[in-house]
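Service request form, structural biology core

Requester: graduate student, group of Dr. S.
Request type: structure prediction, single chain
Budget code: on file
Notes: please return the result as structure tokens.

Sequence provided:
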Amino acid sequence: MMHRFLAMLFFAASPLVAQATESLDPYAGETKEQKDQRMAWWREARFGMFIHWGVYAVPAGVYEGKDIAGIGEWIMNRGKIPVARYREYAKNFNPVKYDPESWVKLAKDAGMKYIIITSKHHDGFALFDSKVTGWDVVDATPYKKDLLKPLAEACRKHGMKLGFYYSQAQDWVHPGGAGNNWDPTHKSSMDEYIKTIAVPQVREILENYGDVAVLWFDTPKDMNQERAELILPSLKKQPGIIYNDRLGGGYKGDTNTPEQHIPPTGFPGRDWETCMTMNETWGFKSKDHKWKPASTLVRNLIDIASKGGNYLLNVGPTAEGEIPQPSVTALKEIGTWMKTNGEAIHGTTASPFRRLAWGRCTVKKGSAGDTLYFHVFDWPQDGKLVIPGLTAKISQARVIGGETIAATTNQQGVITLNVGAKFVDPIATVIALEVAPGWKVGTVALAPAADGSLTLGMDFVELHQTGAHNHMAIETKAGKPGVGSWTNPANWIGWAFRTGEPKSYEVIAEIAAAKPAQIQLHMGETKLSASFQPTGGDDKFATQSLGKIELPPGDHELGIRPVTTGWSPVNLRSVTLKPVK
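Core staff response, request fulfilled:
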């Protein structure tokens, strides 16, 4: 698993690029209605378990007494371990503690609806009894048993959808597979590898384990159209199967797969799924103890669902067949939250709001009306939750796991929920607002306050991001939301607003910064150089004047753009335009 390989290599091609032919995608002629029916269970699920498991769990991040940097399942590549030496690890892969039914129950109790397991990762090792190679769990390990069959049986027993990850291109053990440039014994024809290993193994995993819901390809290094189209026909063995965007050869599949980050606005018009680790590795690594708290994992799930995506959360079992205890503990905590609030995740669609600074929203359609679920991260101190821009006839408002609450609408049409002073759940309290058909969310104009000032806060900020890494996010620090993780100087933020008369304004920012950061303010063609000054730390907020600007009446956009040569990460809560007399 490495996202940058996807970004760099998705359209990579070998010299043997196939001529344009009729698409072999099994869904090339599919109608929208047919696709909606095929994707229905996946869209309802919203939450799944990823399992990275293989021989790499034996060295567990350590090779010849040295810690190997990077993710655990890449140790063969990172450590440049010769094929013959790596094969020796299989002799110690003996998962006698493997209990697939307990894994399925753990996932189900956490609110997960499907499981994706690595049938074969980049080290070429198969967790099943492959008839085309001896490099598998039955032939190369003392365990001698297929690991996928009992998992498939447990999934069927407990109503869990099952999918298989398969590394179709990178294979560092089988000659000809992509990615091994350190062991000369590995050199061979990739086309021969695709034909003799990848194609028959894909057939095996699609023929021998009952219903397979998803085929999850990865890192299409050196995949061209010709190679991809050798694999595609096998998908017809599982009618209705979903496959992702990592096959290569120009095939986009059914789902986009951002890795280790949540895109700011999702992928409108595309089904998508963020895959993410609980610590910093996918495959088991004995010294990686940087575990995300359950609260973060739950809020990730909420954030992803609010953008119309699925959350594929990873566990990396040990060579003995145990899911690490911190993962088990976190999943049980997630399950506690989901037991109460799962209705606000499963079967929901994306938020109709541009942004809610205090939380997120998901929507569930109904025949007689819809339900808007408001996931409140930051509880209003005055007990009044303002819903910006919503016009609706409210049937009922209730706190999930709590009581019915009152909703009021003032003369300006602003809906306020009287939620009280205490939250129900410190991770996220969910309020279900049942509304009659015809509800809508309009654009809320940013208007000046009584003193003429204009506060640009987190409700209306637009995050403009570039690239696959270093993603900004709305984060809560010291009890208030703000733009955080702003490490990439190519990223910038902005606000759209309207003024009613020409005025001169002082621009005042509320920020926290450990170091100075050079910026430019953009107002149409006008640019103003400024800087954020250190405040004593990235969680110590202070207000700072950035300079003055003249604004005529009308619509405007204020952009804050880093200066690349003088940028250091900052956290920003708001920008206020204060009239200058």
